[in-house]
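Lab notebook, bench 4. The sequencing result for the construct came back, and we need a structural model before the next group meeting so we can plan mutations. Quick request posted to the team channel:

Model the 3D structure of this chain.
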Amino acid sequence: QVQVVESGGGLVQAGGSLRLSCTVSGLTFDDHTMGWFRQAPGKEREGVSCINWSGGSTYYAESVKGRFTISRDNAKNTLYLQMNNLKPEDTAMYYCGRGARYGGTQCALKTYDYWGQGTQVTVSS
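Done. Here's the predicted structure in token form:
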């Protein structure tokens, strides 16, 4: 059975931190690009951070650069997003997606084929 499950979201004050996790089963994981995306009400889903198939290269949206860190543990089929110094504008539903086989850091929506249900991140001021 295919499962892509995000966890770790919640309600935090501005300046706080959260760590999101994404666990994958029923799909190959360690040979694919993986990414974190977010969608706020009334806005399009956007790429936040993506990581190549081996974990050696990363991409960050300019708005989160220096605050967020993406990583993966291929032995555990798990993707992480460490989010520090959170801002109210980070408030969104955060989604984990699987990208291209043996792919790079491409963070375009059209290259992602499987998604989790999302985990809500809310940052208060």
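The CA atoms of residues 62 and 123 lie 19 Å apart.
Will bring this to the meeting.
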